[in-house]
Structures are given as structure tokens and as C-alpha cells.
């Protein structure tokens, strides 16, 4: 008579959770304060990466997601899935050996990472700078169009009988006398349910606080430049080796690293930046200049290519850089799926699968202890 699960958040993480839950037989309602896929998901590049993750729980999650995404892409139709691979390069002597050491650590846990001899790197990327000192090819890296993916997942949820309610802010969670979740409160009343999934992205901390179970999820702003169409100039996702350091940095100040990739439509996307500025809605010219300068350093051919626009968004940042996935022991029926920062697109398929396994009582396919809600980094800083 009412949904088994309410998913709060209609970005790619919430959509993937709803898709997996309906596939497992749950009745699901998805609510979002805005339009589906209009928040963090709309500001993403669509990366499905294993190349930027050191051995550990997030890489395990990424490897699972990479196995799941191709079948999802076949099911969902045109989401611009491209299994084009990635290329990570060092452009200084000092960066070369750390990149190769990182590659060897990844290979030891099953990542397909291949050192590219200096004489062959320009066969993969003819327009790449000649200043490359080391390069690693990652055939497993892929890309998709995040808004297409999220909306296709939600369309399948609807086809299975699920309900999507956009422009429906949730103020808090209702509980019964037994202390369990019994619904979520919206403007026109309460949507009854037995479980709530907090998939609010960078706003997940606010929602958790309103529900009485605070968690430390903070917004981290990122900016992307979009060039005019430039077909076949950039063949892979290409980034400088310093990108990995920027991803795991705790520094609140601006972090930029060079990330360049083409899209199916032709324009080139240029990133990446990370900056903790709260929810400040601004695009700073000095950030755009830094991104452009570093991109031209990797691909000198970009120096004369027009930049058509820039866009930015907020990524859900957990203090220990590990997503939060699982039940909240303080509130039975409350679940979290957040904290993926800039990797949410790539990790969505696995996150949805794991949430569905947990909610339905199935055995998760990877160890979820590192992602638990009640770890010190998530609770103590809340």
C-alpha cells in the first residue's frame, strides 16, 4: 500500500539505488528537491575510473562498479558509454617513479595497468606533449554521460512501478514509537515507508542532521571547461599523475590538476579542480586560467581552441575520502549512500547494488566494513 523504500536524492547515486532496489522487488519512491540529475550529477564528467584509486576499499568498489556498468549500459540504451581507456602521464623526472610504483601496487590487486614505453606513448595520443617521462595505460577506464545515465535508470524504475517525485523537498524523517523509520515528511504530509536512503550527495550531511543522525559530509566544489568540438584529437581520458594526489588531499585550498578527455559529441572536457568553499555559487576566473594552462601543458594543440563554457558543482566529500554506504545504527530504517566526492558516477552501479543487497538481506559481494556509517571520521567531525 506504500513504498518499501524512499530514496531521497534523484542524482546518479539515488537513481542507481532505486534501480537496484526495484530489480530486487522493492517498491520505491524517489524524491528530490529539484529536477532529477540536476545537482552534482549534472556537473560531472562521467568518469568510470580505476586508474586514480590506490589499493583499498574505494578501489574494490570501483572494480565492482566497472564490472556492473557495461551490462547496465546495454540495458539502459544510449548513455554514451565509451570503454575508451585512460592514460596517466608524468611530465617531470620526479613524478615518473611514483607513477610506476602506483601502477605496480594496483596491478598486484588485479587492475589492468600497462606501462607505455616512451616511444609508443604518442601512438596512443599523437597530440600529447613531448615532455612525458612515464605513462601508464588503463584499458578499464571508461566514460558515460551522467545525466543520460541517471535519467535512464529512473525511467527503468518508473517502468517497474516506482514513483519519481521531483521538486519535493524532504524536511525530516518520521519515526514510530519503536524508534524505527516510518516515513519521510514533505510539504503535503508524510510518505510512509520502512526504509529511507539518504542519497543527497553534498547535502547528505544536512539531511542526516535534520533526521537526528548527523554525519560529516561536506561540499567540495569542482569546475570543468568545455571546448569547441575537436573530434579525435584526444582519444583517451588523459591526466597528469598529480591528479591522484589532488583527489586524496585534505587541503581546503584550491587544488588543480590536468585532466583532459573528449566526449561522444566532440567537445573536450578540461578539469579538474577541487576547492572547499561551502556552497558558494561562483566560478572564479583564476580557477579557469589554471585549468586551461595545465591542459595546454598536456596538449599544446588546445592553445588555440575556443572554450565554449564552464560549469561547476559540489561533490560530497567525506573526511577520510571513503564513501558512506550502509545502515545507520542510530536510527533503524535509515541508510546512507553518499560521500563519493568526484567518483560518484563511476561508483554508482556498485553502490546501488550494495544498498539493494543490504536492504533485502542479501550477502554483499564485497566487504562493507570500511564504508560503515559509524566510523570515527564520519561521526566525530559531524
Explain this structure:
The chain has two domains: 193 residues, FAD/NAD(P)-binding domain (3-Layer(bba) Sandwich); 154 residues, D-Amino Acid Oxidase, Chain A, domain 2 (2-Layer Sandwich). It has ten helices and 19 strands. An eight-stranded mixed beta sheet has the order 5-6-4-14-15-16-13-17. It has a six-stranded mixed beta sheet with strand order 8-2-1-12-19-18, sandwiched between helices. The two termini are 36 Å apart. About 1% of the residues have low confidence. GO terms for molecular function: oxidoreductase activity. This is Glycine/D-amino acid oxidase-like deaminating enzyme. InterPro entries: FAD-dep_OxRdtase, FAD/NAD-bd_sf. It comes from Herbihabitans rhizosphaerae.
Across the major sheet, the strand order is 5-6-4-14-15-16-13-17
CATH fold type of the largest domain: FAD/NAD(P)-binding domain
State the oligomer: single chain
Instruction: Count helical runs.
Output: 10
Q: Helical amount among residues, as a percent range?
A: 25-40%
- Portion in strands: 25-35%
Overall number of structural domains: 2
Cα gyration radius (Å): 20 Å
Structural class: alpha/beta
Annotated CATH homologous superfamily of the largest domain: FAD/NAD(P)-binding domain
What's the level 1 CATH class of the largest domain? Alpha Beta
Gross geometry: globular
According to DSSP, the number of beta strands is: 19
The end-to-end distance, rounded to whole angstroms, is 36 Å
